[in-house]
Amino acid sequence: MGPLSRDAWAQRLGAFRASPSAFMAGPEGEDLGRDLLSDLRSEKLSEQTKVSLLALSMEYPAQLWPDASAAEVAATSLLDTLVLLPPRPSALRRPLLLAATTALAAGGALGPTSGASCRLLPLLLGLAAGSDPGRGFVPASEQRPLQATACECLRELESCKPGLLGGSLGLLRGLLGQEGPVQPLSLLLALALRNTLVLQFRVGAGLGGLLTDKVSPTGGGPWDWTLVEEGDGRLQPQAPSWPAAEEGEGERSLTAREHSPEEARELRAAVIQLLDTSYLLTPVAQAQLLWLLGWALRGLQGQPPALFKPQLVRLLGTAQLTLLHAVLALKAAFGEALFTAQDEALLLRRLTLAAQHPALPPPTHLFYLHCVLSFPENWPLGPEGEEAAPLLLGPQLCRGLLPSLLHDPMALLARLHLLCLLCAEEEEEEKGQLPSPRHYLEELLAGLRQRAALDGGPRALATLCFQASYLVACCLAGQPTVLTPLIHGLAQLYQARPMLAPHFVDLLDQVDSELREPLKVVLRQMVVSRPGRDEALCWHLQMLAKVADGDAQSATLNFLQAAAAHCTNWDLQQGLLRVCRALLRAGVRGGLVDLLQVLARQLEDPDGRDHARLYYILLAHLAAPKLGVALGPSLAAPALASSLVAENQGFVAALMVQEAPALVRLSVGSHRVKGPLPVLKLQPEALEPIYSLELRFRVEGQLYAPLEAVHVPCLCPGRPARPLLLPLQPRCPAPARLDVHALYTTSTGLTCHAHLPPLFVNFADLFLPFPQPPEGAGLGFFEELWDSCLPEGAESRVWCPLGPQGLEGLVSRHLEPFVVVAQPPTSYCVAIHLPPDSKLLLRLEAALADGVPVALRTDDWAVLPLAGDYLRGLAAAV
User: Which residue ranges have biased composition labelled Basic and acidic residues (predicted)?
Assistant: First the structure.
């Protein structure tokens, strides 16, 4: 078929982009990659259409080239297309380079055994160096764009295979001082330098002359993969963050090795060269460069952080967020070794003033606030060499960053966090001082609670109030002067608006005991002091179920007895029973017995009466420890949101079949050769104790009749289990794959199901013997079977290799149950019955040292290739 037209390709690409997985599973998916590579060389398609095809290959390489071999073929074809381009300017050279690089990197084909890799790497390095591979390959108008593209491709390959460009450091360093694209070369050299430093020290080697050798690593020969193979290829990703406690082995080794004076001098010169040209880069590229170099030199002996000082002076006043982030990363990495006290004060003042700018968009405003909150704590050295006071945020500096009710929620919470930090460092107030941060915090929280208490107010206001309360509780947990008014304010909020009970329950679940316990006491007192007929009874019961305990039993029981008469619908009755359950778990007994008896008689809903009766029985027959276990949450299953089984979530878990990892392994043993059907022998092995195991088997297609399930009462690890027999009912004599599904009960009472690895039925597993003929009649019986196969059947001859055991050993190991006539050690006649109604007859005669010719007949043509493969593999079978 010829190349597709532009419209046909547009329609095809549109269908692919709409659903790549569905398209690849369809009839056209298999040919998409091949057609794409073929039509790139067609003269009928425009360059614009070809660029669209190449863009698709770069966006979806995993779908087009799913394995390494397909990626290798694709990269080779793309490089061939690149070489065949005419010497005139073309829009295809850069996309072809990018597509070939993407295919190798995404397909996992990049390596020393890849022919496409050995072609692409020297080509990219030559283009990055500004040289022409020959025959007008690079027109003058495309030289600089191609040079930049080659650098980007090399950077991608170096990221995939760290150390790939270790031998090219000197060459790349020399290119940086020449005319060429500065940004791609700088980033490429920085990445290669960082990876080489990590990998060289990981294997205990130095830089040697890598920074001064300006010869191509190929040198006219193969590419040097030594450094890639010595490293494990797993370095931390190139993200602008600084690992601290979880550093890799290679990064830790940098702090333990010292360069020779020559290596240190060349390394310092290379770093200075990169930093001196960094001002020519875009802000994002500058941040990436500073991060790579900072990581490479962090803690390295002989390389002082002062190398970054000129850049720090230049960037302290930057308005670019990416560069400010890079400066903060350097601060976190080097601390006082790079930043003086004046630098830190200037940076902190810069952050606080920028965060107050009124025209900042919300994301930028939040970024500045986050930087202020995360500013690294340190103790900078003073000018006289003595330790100065710690750098802290004072009220004067942060006066413009205090939160207000007018701020949007995210900004208010960030500013509130900053205010909490100020309150944590606050000293006793002096007379005549302005209102303290603590006083301002109390007024802000009071305003938030006042807005949350408004009837009919939006839910967002209540959510913001509880978020702020949680933040204050976390930051100021050890300060009673803050927590006490917070607790009383929250209690007043509940009194004004009981429908916020779910928010209170969530807050109690999240905060520490410093706030949780006193808040529970106050809320419980407030609830039980209300009349039981309150219109907000459902919220009071929900709150009481959370805060009820063994304290104030009489007041709680009086409230419940008064409320029971007003619990007329199902929801209220369930809420009342949840409180009783909480009291049961808390060990309350006196008075609760009478209440449960009343509920078991008076509740209108039968489900509620059953719950009350169950609780009464448990209370009357179980001691406190066992009662707590019986009513506690189930540890065997996650919580289920069902009020019908609120007394024990494990009841529902026990009644549901849950998917779980496979706790049993199956292996196939030797099959039985007796009986009317082939029987597969399975050996089970349990990883944990399991009970009532049911194994279900399914064969795809119609090859076999449905298989019966196999049942095992109990399996325990370390205890041998009897083999399981699985009868097979083939509808045709062919191998098959069995999908296995296990259903079992665990020791915790859960019923689980799991998918086990598939089992394979081999051709030999179907062999059955014919009925044994009378003594002395074996040859006549075999000849009768032999003649019956023709003319409807088929006949063939196969060469069967023999191993060191010879013909007699091969027959005794594999074919002995089926031998009808034997004249050892030279001649055997074998008759095999293949269910449902086929036969396979073998004559093994005139054996030689390395094999034996086998004449075979069968009444089923489909058996011939299976029998041939089986006989040829007998010598290698164990």
Answer: 250-260
Q: How far apart are CA 460 and CA 452, in angstroms?
A: 9
Nearest to 847 by CA among 809, 796, 878: 809
Q: CB–CB of 78/100 below 8 Å?
A: yes
Three-state secondary structure of 761-822:
ECHHHHCEECCCCCCCCHHHHHHHHHHHCCCCCEEEEEEEECCCCHHHHHHHHHCHHHEEEE
Q: Which residues does residue 684 pair with via DSSP β-bridges, in sequence order?
A: 666
Three-state secondary structure along 615-630? HHHHHHHCCHHHHHHH
Q: What is the CA radius of gyration of the chain?
A: 40
Which of 733, 762, 791 is at the close of a domain? 762
CB 329 within 8 A of CB 376: no
- 558-593 burial, b for 16+ CB within 10 Å, e for fewer? ebbebbbeebeeeebbbbbbbbbbbbbbbebeebbe
Output the pTM of the full model: 0.62
In angstroms, the CA 3 to CA 20 distance is 22
Domain range for 859 is 766-872
As to burial, measured by CB atoms within 10 angstroms (0-12 exposed, 13-18 middle, 19+ buried), residue 795 is middle
Domain count, the chain: 6
Measured in whole angstroms, how far is the alpha carbon of residue 461 from the centre of its chain?
Answer: 36
- C-alpha torsion angle, residues 724, 725, 728, 734 (rounded to 10): 70
Highest mean pLDDT of the ranges 332-336, 719-723, 735-739: 735-739
- If one counts every other C-beta atom within 10 angstroms of the C-beta of residue 639, the result is 10
Same domain, 743 and 783: no
What is the DSSP-derived secondary structure letter of residue 552?
S
Among 726, 690, 723, CA closest to 710: 726
Of 650, 646, 647, the C-alpha closest to 637 is: 650
Do 339 and 406 sit in the same domain of this protein?
Answer: no
As given in the structure block, the two tokens for residue 663 are 């706790």
The residue behind tokens 């370390």 is 718
pLDDT, tens digit (0-9, with 9 covering 90-100), for 401-452: 889 999 899 999 999 988 888 887 765 444 445 568 889 899 999 999 999 9
Task: Write out the two tokens for 340.
Answer: 């003086």
pLDDT tens for residues 44-61?
A: 888 999 999 999 999 999
- Residue 844 sits in a domain of what CATH number? 3.30.310.10
d(CA 514, CA 543): 19
Q: Which residues contact 433 (CB under 8 A, 6 or more apart)?
A: none
**413 and 523 share one domain:** yes
**Per the domain annotation, does 545 fall within a domain?**
no
Question: Is the confidence at residue 116, as pLDDT, over 60?
Answer: yes
Give the three-class secondary structure for 840.
strand
What mean pLDDT is predicted for residues 364-370?
A: 88
The model's pLDDT over 799-832, given as tens digits with 9 standing for 90+, comes to 888 877 788 888 888 888 898 888 887 889 999 9
Q: Is the pLDDT of residue 239 over 80?
A: no
Only one residue has tokens 């090859």, namely 703
Structure tokens at 268: 């310092």
Tens of pLDDT along 276-302? 988 889 999 999 999 888 877 876 766
- Nearest partner of 728 among 683, 760, 693, judged by Cα: 760
| Interatomic CA distance for residues 27 and 771, integer angstroms | 50
504 closest CA partner among 537, 458, 540: 540
Alpha-carbon distance of 402 to 112, in angstroms, equals 60
**Is position 733 within any domain?**
yes
**Most confident range, picked from 19-23, 97-101, 512-516:** 97-101
Neighbouring CB atoms inside 10 A of 775's CB total 6
Please report whether residue 213 resides in a domain: no
Task: Tell me, rounded to whole angstroms, the distance of Cα 487 from its chain centroid.
Answer: 41
Same domain? 478 vs 329: no
Residues 608, 591 within the same domain: yes
Alpha-carbon dihedral sign for residues 635, 636, 641, 647: negative
What percent of the chain is modeled with pLDDT above 70? 86
